[in-house]
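Page 37, continued from 36.
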């Protein structure tokens, strides 16, 4: 049994031991026994047309199995001693023929090189892919193209037109290939061993040899992803007789640039609403957005819908319960660093104090919100959130006689949609 991937070859060497004193001439003959085995030049099994075995020696005859597609092929191999049919034999029983039953399994073809594509959401890129011709003579071939990656598209059909190198015509290439095959048919097998006896029923392990593409042509793959993330799939080129070339596809899509930076400022337990305007440019399709919020003390709906060719406001609530530390804005920080390099060391502290005096240059923490739609794509907004502390509330004066108890109720408001657990400390 011979097993290999489609369009790959596996070679099984069959030893023939001649224990007589006369030279043998062995003529192999293949008889396909099912449709998958093919016939004539299309037969998946190949063997030398003639093998000469010197007296008292052993040579090998190479049987090659090369399936062009996934298959389960069977055939019969008859090896006849035509030179001495009357006086000698090639088997232990004295017969002049040896018969082998062949079984070849062609598995799914192996993938070509993995194609990795890096892109940015909502930005189209084009990737050119070298597609080989799988015809044995390297001639032109047409493929049907199938791709299961959502963000990839291209022409549904692709033709590979092979151009021969300068100085060599197509007929010369075909003639050279035919001559090579003709020469191979009459090559003698190499010595298997030098002993006088041999066991032809025990065959050595098969040798697998990879195929070599005979021609290339470029196919243009268009990649346009509406969302950031990673996609994996396959790109297949299928011939009319169901031969397949396929490539693993990996698309790494980065998030698009932010649409806007929104600065928000409030104080502890003083919630504010952030209104973000969105527009659906599609004339026919409704846009359903999934909303991803990253940041503390932010809340909003997980979904947002826009009718075709319409705009609306999404409301995001910022309700902090603790103040945020103050840091210099990124753009101001860069300018400050450049300025610090020019100012003398004794003036650095003075420059930093001047920057801190301008409250607009400071903010609390970073946050973001992303609107993701399968129809119009992904939109990011960066939030700079600032929460100032508030002055402590002064309770009314409490008077109580010695040994008695006075009670005062303190109202605490929770601006969040979730339960708060508070620790009470008193000094």
């Amino acid at each position: 049994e011979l097993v290999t991937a489609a369009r790959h070859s596996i070679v099984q060497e069959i030893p023939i031991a001649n224990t007589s004193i006369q030279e043998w001439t062995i003529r192999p003959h293949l008889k396909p026994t099912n449709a998958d085995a093919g016939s004539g030049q299309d037969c998946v099994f190949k063997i030398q047309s003639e093998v000469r075995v010197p007296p008292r020696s052993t040579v090998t005859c190479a049987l090659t199995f090369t399936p062009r597609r996934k298959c389960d092929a069977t055939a019969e191999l008859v090896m006849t001693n035509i030179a001495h049919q009357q006086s000698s034999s090639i088997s232990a029983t004295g017969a002049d023929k040896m018969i082998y039953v062949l079984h070849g399994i062609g598995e799914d073809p192996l993938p070509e090189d993995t194609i990795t594509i890096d892109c940015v959401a909502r930005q189209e890129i084009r990737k050119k892919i070298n597609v080989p011709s799988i015809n044995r003579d390297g001639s032109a071939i047409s493929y049907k193209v199938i791709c299961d990656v959502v963000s990839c598209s291209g022409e549904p059909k692709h033709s590979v037109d092979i151009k021969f190198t300068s100085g060599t015509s197509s007929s010369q290439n075909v003639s050279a290939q035919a001559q090579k095959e003709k020469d191979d048919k009459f090559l003698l097998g190499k010595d298997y061993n030098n002993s006088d006896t041999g066991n032809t029923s025990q065959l050595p392990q098969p040798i697998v040899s990879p195929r070599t593409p005979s021609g290339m042509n470029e196919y243009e793959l268009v990649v346009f992803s509406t969302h950031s993330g990673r996609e994996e799939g396959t790109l297949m080129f299928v011939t009319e007789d169901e031969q397949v070339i396929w490539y693993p596809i990996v698309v790494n899509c980065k998030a698009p640039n932010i649409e806007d930076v929104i600065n928000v400022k409030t104080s502890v337990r003083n919630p504010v609403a952030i209104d973000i305007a969105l527009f659906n440019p599609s004339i026919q399709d409704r846009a359903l957005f999934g909303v991803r919020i990253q940041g503390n003390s932010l809340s909003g709906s997980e979904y947002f819908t826009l009718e075709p060719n319409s705009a609306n406001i999404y409301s995001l609530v910022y309700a902090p319960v603790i103040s945020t530390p103050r840091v210099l804005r990124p753009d101001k920080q860069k300018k400050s660093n450049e300025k610090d390099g020019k100012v003398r060391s004794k003036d650095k502290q003075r420059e930093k104090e001047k920057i801190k005096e301008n409250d607009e240059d400071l903010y609390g923490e970073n946050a973001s919100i992303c609107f993701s739609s399968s129809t119009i794509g992904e939109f990011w907004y960066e939030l700079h959130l600032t929460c100032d502390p508030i002055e402590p509330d002064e309770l009314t004066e409490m008077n109580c006689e010695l040994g008695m108890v006075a009670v005062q109720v303190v109202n605490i408001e929770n601006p969040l949609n979730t339960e708060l657990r508070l620790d009470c400390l008193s000094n």
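The first strand starts at residue 2 and ends at 5. Flag for discussion at group meeting. The two ends are 88 Å apart (CA to CA).
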